[in-house]
Amino acid sequence: MPRMSTREDLERARRLVLAGRDPDAPCVTVCGGTGCLASGAGKVVAAFEHEIESRGLSADVAFRSTGCHGYCERGPIVVVEPEETCYLRVKPDDVAEIVTETVAGTRVVDRLLYLDPATGRKVARESDIPFYRHQRRVVFGANRKVDPRSLEDFLAIGGYHALATALFDMTPAEVVDEVKGAGLRGRGGAGYPTGLKWETARNAPGDTKYVVVNCDEGDPGAYMDRSLMEGNPLGVLEGLTIGAYAIGAHEGYVYVRQEYPLAVENVLIAIEKAEGAGLLGSDILGSGFDFTVRVHRGAGAFVCGEETALLLSLEGRAGEPRPRPPYPAVKGLWERPTVINNVETWANVPLIVSGGAAAYASVGTGGSKGTKIFSLVGKINNTGLVEVPMGIALREVVYTIGGGIPGGRKLKAVQTGGPSGGCIPEERLDLQVDFDELTRAGSMMGSGGLIVMDEDTCMVDVARYFTSFLADESCGKCVPCREGLRQMHGILARICEGGGREGDLEVLQELSEVAVEASLCALGKTAPNPFLSTYRYFRDEYEAHIRENRCPALSCKALISYYIEPELCKACKLCLKACPAGAIDGERKRIHVIDQERCTRCGACLEVCPSRFGAVRKISGEPVPPPLPEDQRRIARASEGT
Amino acid sequence: MSQIRMLVDGREVVSDEGATVLEAARSAGITIPTLCHHDLLQPYGGCRLCIVEAETGGRVALVASCVHQVQDNLVVRTRTERVDRIRRTLLELLLAHAPESPQLQELAATYGADRNRFEQQASFCVICGLCVRYCAEVKGKHAVGFVDRGTRKEICFVPEIAVMECATCLECFPLCPTSYAQAAYVLMKGLAPR
Amino acid sequence: MDTERVDQIIDSHRGEESALIQVLLALQRENRWLPKEALDRVCARLDVPMSRVRQIVTFYRAFSVVPKGRHQVHVCMGTACHVRGARRVLDTVQEVTGIGPGETDLEAKFSVETVNCLGCCALGPVVDVDGTTHGNLTPVAIAEVLEGYE
Q1: Could you list the mean pLDDT of each consecutive 10-residue stretch along chain A, which spans 642 residues?
Q2: Which domains does chain A have, with CATH numbers?
Q3: B-chain residues near A477 (CB < 8 A)
Q4: pTM of the model
Q5: For chain C, counts of helices (H) and of strands (E)
Q6: What's the number of domains chain B is made of?
Q7: Residue A203: which residues within 8 A CB-CB, separation 6 or more?
Q8: Is the domain covering C71-147 a CATH 3.40.50.1820 domain?
Q9: Do C51 and B143 lie within an 8 Å CB cutoff?
């Protein structure tokens, strides 16, 4: 792409790209997001490239490997335009048939289509699939349309129209006002009003200012920012450039976790292409505005998602949060005014500038405008990334979009907000998903992780898990967080191991209060949330652990025993062979018995026992029945039930 | 520089803009307990013992007085039930590591902290950072630093620097509230190659 | 690690002191661990005290100051994987390899780490071995996977 020195150059380039693309010609899109790659999408891509070339179709068929589409449960995903035929769980061996039937021909390959469990019918069009139909993919939808390494693809979907509008039709102050009017709130977790942050930075004294992209996405189970950065880095860069213009910054940083190498690679390529095309660097599109961007990798510290810690990390220091005030918008990177925003926040900016504040604010609730991308994971049928309007009922996300809980199990809670958040129990599932509602329910929006938990999830263990995570990730600078988490983790671990004592819950509450009130940064202040929220809604589980040495979810290893029901055991020896501890005694036609002393509670026996027998079960809080006497262990006939 | 007027424990305190609440309180003879604070060092805000209630515009917040800047019409309360409760728990958490520290014991007496509240993990170091920060900011030698993070955070003398600088200095020793700095130095000397 | 290569990496970051973490990351990526000599060189060239470098390489989990095994086993302990049984998978990894997270076995065959989220939640529980993602794991399945490595 040649360098564009004016707005007209941009529009000319865009027209040229579009002119060279026939919307009615077949186009094959394969999801190349990290999840799909792990499921073999790379081979599917290679198979398509081979098929298209060897059949001489290269001139007539467009092919594109894109970023994450979001329906991660069903990857690898292939979408064939113009009919938008969506194929799921595609294997390399399916590719030849797809090319013959759908690409070269006009038929569908039925077995690869989505089967709607509600209607029992196959769905061919991507946008008709319930998972997609109920979403509102105004930000994330671009992922499906672009090869992240192609500037042409980005222009084809309208990329950089917003930046041109900002640079040539608006003053920086007007851009700030537009973002304020839109009501955009930070998508990284705290939900601070973005426009206000920009205004503060814009008005802060000083000529040198910075803008930073926070792609240190650390909440385990959340990978929205990863997918945005991998799948549409130019979209993020465009938002960043608009923000730089608005506050008067000429240097920007993209801070990406080093655990996301593909995101780092793709954003570096995007920067290079944008610079080459005059969309980044000096005198962007001839506007007189200069802006350069550098990429920094994180080095493995969750706390560096906290803004002051991230800025210290950019300065080459340990990420120990600073007290605030002063806030980064006034004194940030190298003590200069700095706007640091989350990836998704930046990705929303072009939408606001192009469509206007009023249109943006027409979606969402009074206090939470726009859409939010969530990672819907855990005990859920349709694992993936979903984008929904703020205000949607959590129940709709879990059931209508998420497809409910697998295996017919019962939903217990949805955990939101990562380690800083809390659990929303089933009885509060009708709440509207927005910043304030989630906070009122004892959780928070966080970066967007929605971890679905079912009846087999132990909520005390959930608290222990998050507390352990935070104790390791705490920077260790302040006493309430470092020492508070040390003690809280010790107590919670002890409770999960059967050593719970009267008084433990009171100590946990007291430590929680001190951490909330006295910690230096948000990590410490929100660290007690996992305990506080599970205690609020699942106190009975805590009490069962402490008073009865019982884990109601049958999950905590130290509190459960595995037991083979003699009535159901068919002496097939599968569990015997699978047991890594040699703890099962038995033979063909001799009912198997688990030696509780040797059992390590790994669960292999439960895993391998055929479901038609279902002879293995877990027991908690009561003694294991003694083994049958020898003479009763012989199976007379190998038949169903006795 | 403009003058800032605040109320601290009911008394009017005047200070210069840019001063911290701790400095302002001290200038009026009001004591706020500290552990990680030192007049020669940049405020750290790590121990949180200097926590006070600060009310402005009808809202009460808990702030670390060693880092919080003075503000006009701020109403500060250095001893309240809430503040005392927090300080007591903080002390109990620290005493689990350094039960014999004279400084901690003295504060424990004031706040009724029980040194046996939490299970003893006598690692002694309370991560106040005085040794690290003094060596960096005042001496410019960086002979001792922090390593790791979270519950595993520790101080560590760097042998190559320490063997050259420390023997004639040792100024961090009297700063250490638990005498751990001395222990860490001796350990490092014992382990360092000759 | 030879000094020339260390210098090249430092120079590619313009020898800037604030690029300390980026330089160390590049060295870690290339050498898979950070020998003392490399750290000494970084201190000298970037003019930073060793105590600061020590803090950086221990504060941030990306760095290793000890050599690693031939095979890197990364067990995802993200919340989604946790809820799907990652703990039991980790227990099995420990049993099979004989080592725990952060350790390398005596034959330098395996290095085991826990990681917070690999972003493949649909496949959870997930273990990454040498860059290959293994998903939908159970204790039995991960034991089989690991037995396949020399």
Answers
A1: 95 96 94 90 96 94 96 95 95 96 92 93 96 97 97 97 98 98 96 98 98 96 95 98 98 95 96 98 97 97 96 97 94 98 98 98 97 96 96 97 95 96 96 96 94 96 96 96 98 97 97 98 96 97 97 96 94 91 91 94 91 95 92 72 46
A2: 7-133 (3.40.30.10), 154-361 (3.40.50.11540), 371-454 (3.10.20.600), 459-548 (1.20.1440.230), 560-632 (3.30.70.20)
A3: 44-46, 127, 129, 153
A4: 0.94
A5: 7, 5
A6: 3
A7: none
A8: no
A9: yes
